[in-house]
Amino acid sequence: MSAEAERLLERVRRFAMPEGDVEPRDVRFSQQGEMRLAPDARWRPFRAAQWMSGSSIDFRWRAWFWLARFAPVHVVDSFESGAGALSVTAFGLMPVVGGRGPDFDRGEAMRGLAELPWRPFAFGRLANVTWEAAGESRLRLTFDDGRTKASVELEADQEGRVVGGSAIRPRAEGKSTVETKWSGSFGDYRTFGRLRVPTSAEVAWLLPDGPFTYWRGRVTEFPAW
Question: How many domains, the chain?
Answer without folding.
Answer: 1
